[in-house]
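Field: sequence (string)
Field: structure_tokens (string)

Example rows 1 and 2, in order.
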Amino acid sequence: MTKVLIIRYKLSKNIMEGGEQASEKNLRVINSIVGKDNVNTIYIHDESRKRSAFDYIKGIWYFFQNYFFGLSPKRVEQIAREAQPYDIVFVDRSLFGIIAKKLKDSGYQGKVVSFFHNVEKVYFSAKCRWYQPWRPLVMHCADANDNYACKYSDSIITLNKRDSNVLKKLYGREADAIAPIAFRDIYSNPSDEVLNQMTSNEPTLLFLGAYFTANVDGLKWFVKNVYQKLNGVKLIVAGKGMDKIQNASFMTPDIKLMSNVPDLRPLFEEADAMILPIFDGSGMKVKTCESLMYGKNIFATDEALEGYEADFDKVGGRCNTAEEFIRCINDMIANPRPRFNKYSREVFLEKYSEESVTDRYRSIIE
């Protein structure tokens, strides 16, 4: 039986961000293909271990040599040695492309697979502000590791065709497989009350997203240009670390802010619609897939819908301007619809549940 070693970013101790949810999906899908007993995992970070100031200083130094935080020449050499007995090394983040390079340089005879959560060069370009002094260093490291992943991997997987095209343009390598964001279905039994509720004439809108530049910028834009021009609309903001914007100048007292929510199901069921005003980024947005799973009405930008295939008029609405968001939300107010959007749920089950994407991995892993 095929033996697989997975290289992951971190062992999360609390609420997982979108990328780690995707990593968990990768782990479960690979377990289902080769068997759990044939899979081992190495975590680059363990959140339960406290890092000292000296650890951060060393990390910055290694950054100059294209080792992302948590990696060092010694650590990468150790990983390469531990990988030798495995048939496949699945590098679950192209930021660790230097591991793929070391594996090939060390004579590893197995198969190296790199999974691109994003094109990291594009992702960090959106994440790092232009005025931050460390931006050039981070961008160089991300660029180098994307390149290593393309050059030294036997197979690469991207979330969508857009990222594959960007990799082709930047590094001359297309994806060998495209496997979109997928979720394990944890919402198979909504109550009759949830299924039969109609949207309110004073709707509750839910913005879901961790504290991250593109999320904060999108929320700020929405509050200033859309929310403050609507009447009788409630806005809930929820996400890991979002307490950091509690005192932001664009936040108003009537916005309900929730950070590090352990169970999002009640929030999804309370919301009349999801709003996803995201304008920058790479990969696919996990929050979009999660919203489809919960059968929500979704008003979202092109970026938030990137990589998803659906009739977005039925899902809710594709909105890229303030006028489009306002028109769609006001239409929902004037024409109530079920809070539980059966079409969104059907799209999830058909295209974005874990079961629906397993075969795309099978061609790479087996």
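Row 2 begins here:
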Amino acid sequence: MIEALRNAFRLPDLRNKLLLTGLILVIYQFAAHVPVVGVDRSALQSLIEGQSGGLIGVLNLLSGGALQNFSVIANGVYPYITASIILQVLIPVIPRLEQMSKEPGGREKIENYTYYLAIPMSILQVVSQIQIFNTIGGRAIIPGFGADFLLTLTVIVTMTAGTMFAIWLGNLITEQGIGNGLSIIIFAGIVARAPENVVNLLGSSTQPVFNLVAFILITVLSVFVIIIIQEGVRRIPVQYGKRVRGRKQYGGASTHIPLKVNPVGMIPLIFAQSIITFPALIVNLFPEGPVRESITTTFGSQQGLFYWLTFFVLVVGFTFIYSDIMVGNQNLAENLQRNGGFIPGIRPGKRTQDYISKVTRRVTLVGALFLGLIAVVPGIMDFINRILFPNEVVSGTAGNPALVLTGSGLIIVVGVVLDTMRQLEAQLVMRNYDRFIR
């Protein structure tokens, strides 16, 4: 592997791509430390420390760590991801979009629509994010936001421009650098924050040795399982019919459809984190009482058996829903029939689509349970800490080894590393170097 890296830097074009990727990541980290005007740093710090495992932790993850400073790119690339998901869901629902996706150049048009939709999504996220933070933290993150028109307009315009700047940097990495730029930006933010989280974990606890060992075990086991699940594929055999034209015979080849065990990545985790915070926000509209206090404690503080069970069910459910949408958008049965392919023993057309959907749901069950388990690892670790050390009360990253990188972060890190290694391997193999992955 080290020799392969040396070979990569010996190639001028590949070396330039790696250096350009590194330069863009440095620029992004500089921008992540430029705060928005009017931010109350003390209120923001107390909010981040108390809610590092919930929705705020996920948003900070997707922003590459920019949210903890509430910088001009605090939204990160999350509005673009949201816009992309919305359009993917709408393609099979709106006939015009479905027809456009099948036309030549249609995907490029949908990609442009995604950029346009990312702008209002960014504005909506700025407003809702600040309001949610004010509700959860109990203090105004930006005092005067909403009341002072000039301040409100400045914050919205600045953060929206920062989001588009982050998206542009990600696309620049994709086009001129190595791998998927948006994923690499998020990956860099996770890695950059990891040392600080480890220091907090070891320095703020009375059990540093136990926390260090637990962190290493959780990380190693999670990475091992993530690699197995992410690389796991169910292959459906496909046969193409033979066609004779003149003296030549075409077709007759055998191939397969690869169905990934986890085709949706960490998207269900993001959906579940977003939905599970709603009860704590909505309940504030009702009068005070034991029900309101119970819901606020459970869903606002992300604690308790009911909260983690609900979170697990949401992640599993969203995994099935989103995987069905993705498989439906691919139109596998229609594409097979158009190209003269068929699954042995299955009639072309609707029967083939039903068969693919059935197999997909069976395979997705493993991926859904895996994502659900990854999601509740912090809850399991918190339960273990309460049993072993009942007198120690430390919240957030400082008290939970599973929150140093989080399950979502590990999925992103492993996925980006594997994808980047494949990119480098492809470049090296083209030039007759040894394989990067052995």
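free_text_note (row 2): The domain at 1-199 is CATH 1.10.3370.10 (Preprotein translocase SecY subunit).
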